[in-house]
Structure formats: structure tokens, C-alpha cells
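Lab notebook: predicted structure, single chain.

Context: the supervisor wants predicted structures on file for every construct in the current expression panel, including those that have not yet been purified. This is the next one on the list. No modifications to the sequence; it matches the entry in the shared construct table.
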Amino acid sequence: MQTVQILRSQRKTLSIEVRLDGSVLVRAPLRASQARIDAVLRERQAWIESKLIQVARLRELNPVRAYQPGETFPYLGEWYPLEFVQRKTPLLDLNGSFRLAHGAAADPRPVFIRWYQQQAKTIFAERVGYWSARTGLKPTRLGLSSARTRWGSCSSKGSVNLSWRLVMAPLAALDYVIVHELVHLNIHNHSKAFWSAVAGIYPDYKNQRAWLKQNGPRISGLFIEASPP
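Prediction complete. Output recorded below exactly as produced.
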């Protein structure tokens, strides 16, 4: 049995999370008995094992980054090499290659993540605005998420969240996810009517959906930590 950590708090429900190091985190109410936790773990064992397979694939496709010159990183579907430059700011930019300031070399991972998130905010707002203007479907709020396995979500209140990791994917795949979530503003399921509406707006959606399914693990697990918190 894999390593299991139990975290109790003032919550009402019990949840299970498979972490990137292969351990299992159980978030449980303060009064949940060990017997109850063990029973839920047994009930969810098949799900846990499927998630462990996904984690193993992520690690296979995305070994821990060394952040060495020449190592490549994606942006909008293209992969660019890393180089180090002598300067103080900006800590990171993209100009034919990812140029990282020497001062950030000691801890480059958060620098990369911040850069991607900044780009995502700008590009997501621009693309959501474009598709909203074309379709008349406008979210009440646009937010960023850090999800690895869910590219986007739409709440019952009309709020759309997109994973910042999508900014690594081609623009066509990003547009598909945006259209997908905008259609959910009107149709809150994945019925035939939903997919028909998506196809009416974005006829190439099947190809982009297939691209994300095939290539998503390579970008969703790109910044795996050696020892996840």
C-alpha cells in the first residue's frame, strides 16, 4: 500500500488526493474515525490506482527539470531553448529563447511559473474577449487555476477558470477550451446539444481535443517538483 497522510481539519467531508510523489493525502473531518478513513480508502482503491498510473506517466514524460542551457520549454505550442543572461531584470523573458537572469538561476522554477501566469492573464483575457464578442457568451468573471488535469471550468454563477498551463499549448487548443467553457454558460452538461453548440462555433474542436488528450500530460506535468509539498 502506498504512503498515506491524513490531514484533519474543520471540514464536513472526506476527500482523497494522489500527489505527484505517489503518496496519498486524505483530508478528513476532525471526528472521522480511522475505521471510516480505511473504509473509504478501500472503496476508492481502484480510483487511487488509476491516479497513480497517471502520476507515473507524468513523471515519465516530465522528469524533474535541470534548468540547464539548451533545455527547452513550451509557449503557445512551440518549444524554446533556455539561455542565461547577465542582467538583473527582467528575471525571465522570451526572445527566440527563454532568457533567464543569472540571479534567478538558484531557484528558476517559481520564476518560470510567474512568467507563464503573467502571459496567461493577458492572452486568456484577449481570447475570451474575442470569442465572447463572436458568440455573445460572456463570463461574469475570468480566473486562473493551477489545475493539471482540468483545463477549464465554468461555475453555476457564470465564472470561467482556465489553467495557466494552457498558455503552453497551441493557440488553437486554447481557443477550443475557451469555447468549451463559454458554451457551458448556457448548457451545463456534455449532452449532444452541448457538443453540437461547440461544433457550431469551433468546427475543429475534435482535433484540438485530441491534441490535448495526447500532449496534455507533457505540459500539465512540466514543472513537477522533486518533493511536492
